[in-house]
What does this fold into?
Amino acid sequence: MLAQIFAVVIFVAMFIFIVTEIVERHVVSLICAALTMILVFGVGMGSMEAVIETINIQSIFRTEFWYMTGEGGAGSGINWETIAFIFGMMVMVEGMARVGFFRWLCMLIAKLVKYKVISIFITFMVLSTILAMFIDSITVILFLVAVTIELAQLLKFNPIPMILAEIFCANLGGSATMCGDPPNIIIGTSLGYSFGEFLGNTGVIAGVAFLAVVPYFYFAFRKELLVNGSEAVDYRSMPSPASAIQDKKGFIISSVIFICTVILLVTHAQTGLTVSSIGVLVAIGTLVTAGKSAFVLLKKVDYKTLLFFVGLFVVIGGLEQTGILEMMAGFIGHISGGNIMVMIAIIIWLSAIASGFVDNIPFATTMIPIIKSLSVAYGVDLSVLAWTLAMGTDIGGSATPIGASANVVGVATASREGYIIRWGLYCRKMVPATLMVVLISMLVIYVRYL
Amino acid sequence: MTSQLIISVGREFGSGGHEIAKDLAEHYQIELLDSNLLTEVAKHKELELHHLEGLEEKRKIKLFSRTVRGFSSSPEENLALLQFDYLQKKAAEGNSFVVVGRCSENILRKFKCLISIFVLADRKCKMERVMKLYEMSESMAEKYIRERDMERKRYHNSFCEGKWGDSRNYDLSVNSSKLGLDETTEMLIEYIDRRRKK
It folds into this structure.
């Protein structure tokens, strides 16, 4: 009982401190992790075994960490597979950014559509969705928003509608694959799903939703985009895509590494390579080919986020080890009366609403053991609950400016250039889009899996 | 005016800091940046002013904002940073100006030509000034002063290491009620002139 109280208090305190930003979130999660070790596992449970299981360092030395052996899931505690993969992707993305890959791609597309505002609007939505399927949405938005503002100033259109649509599509694209959004990586590695399985399930749902999202944003913003953006443009005055490339050789290498990464991810169920192996391979490939810049790339890796993950996994491990999450699963099961349709509705809407206001990473991490318990207790297909959770957390985050990392970065980048996006402006267009996509996701899940 | 001069004027609400800043700008024939700073930023960025209004000198609301890798979603914080960038750019270009508030004593401290002043006043003087200027009752004026000062303090302290109004952050802190606004301005001009000779 004491261990349970400690676990809940630490968890709630962690959430409060993360939301209020009094201390940086990685510091909060690490302090809470230390408290979990001492108070929950030590004082409350007196179990060294729980500590070892939660730190989970032994998992790195198991074959299944590097190569899929058919035993699904990383188990409880620190999910080192997620951390290794995210680290690798961070290194790769830094390498790509250094050589100007993203700016080149954006400029190339703008040129291909002859700098027509509506065409840029639609192609950038497609670009945002596709890139976010493979690269973290923060990087995608960082570059897309910067180029959008540059083009808006040259073509004299209001960039805010385009930025909002790009943010939404980055979150939607992130939901489509296992590596698109951190909750998906955690869900995939924790429950043992492959990239292909995500693509065939959340990917299809995201695809259906995308077909509704494009017309929604087009009709929502068409008038604003056409105010000044229909004027004829002198192409020669526009920056050439080639000017974005900082290092030609590095650019080719980065492009090759990116293509190889996509191939490795798409085929990892066939090759047997785990996402942690892919992450490590990608990091090594990028660092070796970067030469002297390798140290710069390593310095740029967002270690704070990785540390945040480490702490978070320990705190959630505390809830799991003390049976709190099982109790929460029992509560959801009780409300739903064991009815899977109600269960799906609760999970998707609860995840979506919660992710609109709190960081979706701790939320998804907390929910994973809950859906596992629900699956065991009520005989529900775990994968259906996993896709439901992924869609709810990934899409729900789009509703508010603070719901997902991509939103924060997009809003901040635009605001720093003077295009201030307030809550009202943001939510007026994004809340209906979020509700629409969550509803579509729920209906697709009902039709396809029930 | 040959050498660059930047005067930063922090102030308590109702202390007459704005008037003093205005007189200093007139005396040295340099630009005054106060509420017009927003218009200047909008002009510089080719933006419509209404996009930026209502967020000035306000602290961020933590519950409704989030920071990711150093990027903040807070409109208040982003507007403040936009203004800081503008002021720093203006200063780096060698312009002389008087700036009121906006954490200027802190964000421009790397410029040697900066002279930072904080204007405070006795409660009674502040009350009289506010009651006359805004045609308010005594109780309303007191409440208004308290709220505005609290707002400024929170705004300042959320962006700067030093505390708002703490004399250690400014070259000079002066109580405008003792000499009155005109004589305080004269005294400040004498101080600024001496500083510039150093």
Q: What stands out?
A: Chain B is about 50% helix and 15% strand. The radius of gyration of chain B is 17 Å. The domain at 6-197 of chain B is CATH 3.40.50.300 (Rossmann fold). Residues 138-159 of chain B form the longest helix (22 residues).
